[in-house]
Write a structure and sequence with these properties.
- With 169 residues, this protein is mainly beta.
- 14% of the residues lie in helices and 41% in strands.
């Protein structure tokens, strides 16, 4: 009887160890899932891309860069106030946004006429992506470009539009 009792005790102990090993082999953890919904992103044009006054002569180009530097080529004369277009972006505080510039040239048309000039060579400052302010959720950027002026371009005021877009990065 002692032997049977010992075997029963040993068997029970082995069985308990086997249950303990099985219980320790599997475990569970709980994770948290989160998501942040960003504020609606908006962009507003604050000022126009201004090439100033141009005496066409035999033509050339006028470049107004996003960093406010100005250059010209050819025999034309460029004078007056020249400035890049400026934009304000509003969105979620501290978020990164990317600026997309036009992929093709814009056309400026003479007021009251059909004559045109081509605007291309787009550039922005800051270039590419930038971070919105951590307190206000706003940021600004500038856009410049290169205007192609023909020889003896017809005098007048030329205007046109171009689109830029912003998206969360």
């Amino acid at each position: 009887m002692r032997t049977s009792l010992r075997l029963a005790v040993v068997g029970a102990a082995l069985g308990a160890m086997s249950f303990a090993s099985a219980a320790n082999a599997a475990t569970t953890a709980t994770a948290t899932a989160t998501a942040e919904v960003l504020s609606t992103l908006s962009v507003t044009a604050d000022s126009a891309l201004d090439f100033g006054q141009i005496a066409a002569n035999t033509g050339g180009t006028v470049t107004v860069n996003a960093d406010s530097t100005v250059a010209s080529t050819g025999a034309l004369v460029s004078t007056g106030t020249r400035a890049p277009a400026s934009f304000t972006v509003s969105g979620s505080q501290g978020a990164m946004v990317a600026v997309t510039l036009p992929s093709s040239a814009a056309t400026l048309t003479r007021s009251g006429g059909t004559e045109t000039m081509s605007l291309s060579g787009w550039n922005s400052n800051p270039n590419g992506a930038f971070q919105l302010d951590g307190t206000t959720g706003q940021g600004t950027f500038s856009v410049g470009g290169t205007l192609t002026v023909a020889s003896a371009q017809v005098a007048g005021v030329y205007s046109g539009t171009f689109d830029v877009s912003v998206e969360y990065q």
